[in-house]
Amino acid sequence: MMHQTIKRDGVETIGNPHLSLEGINKKYGLVEVISNLNLEVRKGELIALLGPSGCGKTTTLRMIAGLIAPSAGKIAVGGRDVTHIAPHGRDMGLVFQSYALFPHMTVAKNVAFGLEMRGLSRADIANKVAKALSMVQLEHLAERKPRELSGGQQQRVALARALVIEPSILLLDEPLSNLDAKLRDEMRTQIRDIQQQLGITTVFVTHDQVEALSMCDRIVVMKGGLIEQVGTPHEIYERPATPFVASFVGRTNRVKGKRTADGCIRIGSSMIRSATPAGQDDVVVMVRPHRIHIDWNATSTEQDETANRTAAVLSRITFIGDVIQYHFDVDGSEFIVEESTKKSQSSHRHGDKAVLSWSVEDTLVFGADQ
Amino acid sequence: MEDNPTSWFMRITVTILFLFLLAPVLLVFPISFSGDQILAFPPSSWSLRWYEALLGNNVMMSAFLTSLGLASVVTVLSLIIAIPASYAIVRLKVTGSEFLFNLFTAPLLLPTIVLGLAILIIFASMGLLATFTGLVIGHLVITLPYALRVLSVSLGNLSLACEEAASSLGAKPLAVFGKVTLPMMAPGIVAATALCFLVSFDEVVITLFLTGPRMTTLPVELFHHVESQADPLVASVSVLLILMTLAVVMIVDRTMGLTKAMASGRAVSMSTVADAT
């Protein structure tokens, strides 16, 4: 399914969005926590709100759910304005970080709650509850109380409870943050599979870039109540719009440089090129650590059209199991280079000289004041 | 636990402390079976005569029934008032809710005798003295602070997420309260019930001002009896009081576990005690 993407007033719009936020503002007293947020989500899309704590991602989710009211702006679902509709009238499935299961009800009763509120017949409820529980593979625990379940099981009950009402939008608020690493990986795939299977429009709040990159169709990177960038995981990773996005999503080297008259960038005594033009004199250059190649034997730092080369001195080695990090000194700036480890690792020592090279395309340049 | 000297020292200290606290209470039991005419320990003979005397004492028995009815009505009314009040204060945070909370709990700060006197003056002009209604209102003044505090703490400790989840699942505010908030407050409600019942059932100081020959409560009648006579009847009445208290505690323990119920009320009673002193 292809949608035409057009730029209008700098805001990305898509044809016929399922969920749209227009000019959303949220103030607490004089403090503005969300400023002029515009976002459109397609039907069936899984979109991540990604950012550090305090960036406004959870506030945004809670405004979509109707748990807090925006100070200004409009929220619409399927063309219907829901800005002033109470949470119980919004038809949204909400999953919390803390699971928020009703402790006094059994698993089956928890899942049935939303259906009972909708006045369904007993037979229908039993049928749908059984289906929802089998979807998350918990049929056998239907009569247990939430406190008798593990964290992962509780979160699956919460997911079943939110999905059984067939909501128009599924909202996930850091659903995996309370789970241990292995379980998190499993739940990631399970949530994505269920989301694809049901084709349900989903907004996923997370501070974990791996979750956002691996699960979502598009990512909204937020910082300080503003959207930094909206794009596919690939776009966010390969073409970050701001230095913040570049350093928040994936690891990156960050060095200061100066633009020269011929369009090159000077880092210390080295001159490098980039594909992205930056209009200022003072720039920040960013290169992903695993995109840099180390040539231990070369001495030539001759530049060409496609690659940047610079001489470097090894200052530190960090071994992290599947990856080894080399810290290089390039005229006073530090470059970290990552390589996958091999069993027969060649040994290098502090003070070894090498030539670092990386593609011009992989050279991200931003204005220094960004 | 290891059998080190400290733990033995602790055990002995705790045992002595318990004996110190409970010995006078335990002493009441043997005395109540005394066959003597006067209150003395140890009794020179044993009998059930003071239990017979208690059953035959119409004033004592009617005072006991009054106390029982009074404590029940006061407890129910306290909950009916304090549950919505705590919800308004903790959840809705209505304007002036802090003031309301302080107003409700203020009676705990006043010397009870002053409170009793004040109520006496007002009730005298309204004809509420020695009436059941008057006693109910008087007792509410002191049970409400306990109920409100226990319930506010219990509600404040509940995560808002469950209520938010319920409303996102389509529950209207009243349904959220009835189906999620109230059941989750159950431990607090049981603790408040027990506390209100016991406070009302044992209350003496304020009640002294509000009772009269027409209507009196068991603790007050006991007080009057001790003033005029020194027979072991007071011991059998005391046993009755202790058994009532024990019954309440056991009901709480059976329904939900005493520790659990009191844990939600503990912080409260602590701060209440701190306030009162």
UniProtKB/TrEMBL annotation, chain A:
The UniProt catalytic activity note for this protein reads: ATP + H2O + polyamine-[polyamine-binding protein]Side 1 = ADP + phosphate + polyamineSide 2 + [polyamine-binding protein]Side 1
> Could you say which residues form the signal peptide?
none
Any one GO molecular function term: ATP hydrolysis activity
- What is the predominant subcellular site recorded for this chain? membrane
Q: Does the keyword Cytoplasm apply?
A: no
Q: Which SMART domains match?
A: AAA (SM00382)
Question: Membrane topology for this entry?
Answer: Peripheral membrane protein
Stored Gene3D superfamilies: 2.40.50.100, P-loop containing nucleotide triphosphate hydrolases
Highest taxon of source = Bacteria
Could you tell me where this protein is found in the cell?
Answer: Cell inner membrane
Q: Which UniProt keywords apply?
A: ATP-binding, Cell membrane, Membrane, Nucleotide-binding, Translocase, Transport
* Subunit annotation: The complex is composed of two ATP-binding proteins (PotA), two transmembrane proteins (PotB and PotC) and a solute-binding protein (PotD).
Stated name of the protein:
Spermidine/putrescine import ATP-binding protein PotA
Native source organism of the sequence: Phyllobacterium trifolii
Q: Which gene encodes it?
A: potA
UniProtKB/TrEMBL annotation, chain B:
Membrane topology according to the record: Multi-pass membrane protein
Organism lineage reads as: Bacteria, Pseudomonadati, Pseudomonadota, Alphaproteobacteria, Hyphomicrobiales
GO CC term, one of those recorded:
plasma membrane
The organism of origin for this protein: Phyllobacterium trifolii
For this entry, the protein name equals Putative spermidine/putrescine transport system permease protein
List each copy of the ABC transmembrane type-1 domain by range: 64-252
Q: Does the keyword DNA damage apply?
A: no
Q: Which Gene3D superfamilies match?
A: MetI-like (1.10.3720.10)
State the superkingdom.
Bacteria
Q: Where in the cell is it found?
A: Cell inner membrane; Cell membrane
Q: Where are the transmembrane segments?
A: 58-87, 99-123, 129-148, 189-212, 232-252
Which GO terms are recorded in the biological process aspect for this UniProt protein?
A: transmembrane transport
Similarity comment: family membership: Belongs to the binding-protein-dependent transport system permease family.
Sorted UniProt keywords: Cell inner membrane, Cell membrane, Membrane, Transmembrane, Transmembrane helix, Transport
